[in-house]
Amino acid sequence: SQQGEEDPQALSIQEGENATMNCSYKTSINNLQWYRQNSGRGLVHLILIRSNEREKHSGRLRVTLDTSKKSSSLLITASRAADTASYFCATDHGYSTLTFGKGTMLLVSP
Amino acid sequence: DAEITQSPRHKITETGRQVTLACHQTWNHNNMFWYRQDLGHGLRLIHYSYGVHDTNKGEVSDGYSVSRSNTEDLPLTLESAASSQTSVYFCASSGRAGATFYNEQFFGPGTRLTVL
pLDDT (tens digit, 9 = 90+) per residue, B74-99? Predict the structure, then answer.
């Protein structure tokens, strides 16, 4: 399976702290995307990074990509309680479909 | 506003029954996808379609079928429901409308299916 793997499976932090989650994948990609899923809801696209990019920013989100290590990280700075959700990485291997990882559950406590 | 909807949101059925889950999008997207989400497995692709009359099998297609007769709808049918198909099902679509990137996917709210 080409499925990505997020690490850690669960993360618990305090408001104001930074949250970092990682994603590893097995085969070459065109791009890698991160999605958020609030409890009981569908996934929402957060950010995309292309295979020729190393870093991308969007608001409080920072994504890095290391294609030599086949890994990516998502950093959420100054976390808020509203950031509590599951976060998934999804890889595009060139077939217009995406392969999702199993997700990281983030809990941000007030 | 454009959106993607799923119905029903919750469904309880019995083993062996045929079940159809509806997915409707008003984004005018060509691409549509069905996933199932289970604890420990994340999202797994069941079937997908790149346009009208096009359908393709995903990673876990056994026991499921889809048909695409128009741009807006991609119903998912469980021919003979099994307890192993108890899951949360998500429909998604992708295309140029509303997206920053061509394969950014927009998800519906999900259908929770229980097979007894």
Answer: 999 999 999 999 999 999 999 877 77
